[in-house]
Each structure stands twice: as structure tokens, then as C-alpha cells.
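SAMPLE LOG
Freezer: B-3
Tube label: C17
Construct: single chain, 249 aa
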Amino acid sequence: MIYVYAVTDRPEAPLPAQLGLRDEGLTKVVWRDVVAVVSPFNGAELSKTADELWRYEEVMEELMRDRAVLPVRFGTLLPSRQRVDEILRQAYRALVQDIARVRGHVEIGMRFLSALEDGAEGGRPAAAPESTPRGTGPGSAYLCARLARERELRNRRRAKLRPVRDVYELLASHANASRLDEEPDDRHGTSAAFLVPRDRMTCFRNIVSEVAKAHPELALLCTGPWPPYSFVNAGASMTSTLVDDCHAH
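STRUCTURE (predicted):
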């Protein structure tokens, strides 16, 4: 089995000395001017422990020091180097476009920790709408009250997202690309990602600091720099192919 970490440019550049998962050395699968960074994997499946995740992140950090990196989803295993080579050939054109777009950039993550807090959560349920027909049974009254409550929470959430959108748009104006998760699973926060030129990273962080001071109610948490996980179209498509291939085997 072969573990796949990322697709990069610069096939002529030596790989970092950083060891991969299970202390295996990193190797290359090259097609033209793109490289899949891989390592041998002995075992039926990956356990996906915290230690393995940190090793994967360490490999990413080393790779992004001197080359453009398209991350492949953590836990991606393929049956052979030949299969990796086939996928590079199939996705080559899209991979080259992605590499050109993210070259010289890093991803900065942003978490608005308290943006969606709802102080009324757990309070008394909203009353049923006045338009509820008379004579309806208790089940209908309950459903109407529940719908009213959900509508109230949805409107409140939209109102609380307005300052998040304002801050997001400000930060996005200083990035080359950005994404905002407006439907987070966590009701107590939302997240965004920004693709920032590496040489403007300090400036971007300074802007974040100023915004955080101006909006303490949003409790901003800035993370990174990361490889461009959120901005890799071909990489995401390739990852799906890799994962499907892995499941097939």
C-alpha cells in the first residue's frame, strides 16, 4: 500500500528529511512537472490516531516551505505507485491550474467563536402564531409553536451573522480568495478561510488583530499558516478519486 500526502510542483527539488507515517521515508511519484509525495504503508488500514495526524501535518509543513502544495485528504491509501501515477496523468491539467493558483500562498483560518451564541436558547418556547386556526388539536398547536420557535432562532441567527459577514468581507478584501461557512454545525461559532500571499501574511495578521480589537464580541481565533486545504479544486476532485479507489480495494 502507498500513503499519499500531497501533490506538489518542483519535481527536481529534494524531498525533506521529515519521516512520514510509521517512520517511513518520503518518496516521489512524478508525472511531467507535478509530484505526488508518498510513503510505503504496511498494514490493512490507517488507525488515524492523533500521533498520525500530527505526523501528516509535519510533512505538510515541511513541504510547504519551498514548494506549492495541494494537500490530499488525511488517511488516503492507494494500492500501488502505478495507481498514483495513473491518477496524476488523469488529473494533470486541473492539478497544474490549482498549483499555479496557490503558488506562493498560504491558508489562514478564522473562527468566530461566539458569533452564533443565542442568549435566548433554553428560554421559554415561542408562542404559536396568532394565525393558528381555532379548534386544532394539541399536536397541531405543538407543531405550530415549534415552527415559530425555529423561525425565530433562524432570524436571530441571521442577525448575528451580519457582523461576521462585515468582518469577513473586510478581511476578504486583503486576500486573493476566501470562503465563509454560513451553515456551521456548531451553533456557537462559524469559520472562514483566506488564501493569502505568503509575503503579505504578517500584514494580514496585523489587520486581523485590529479587527479583533474593534469587535471583541466576535472572539476571533486566527490559525495558520496552513496548506490551502479550502482552495484546491482539482485536489478535492483528486482526493475523491483517491478515496473511491481506496474503498474499491
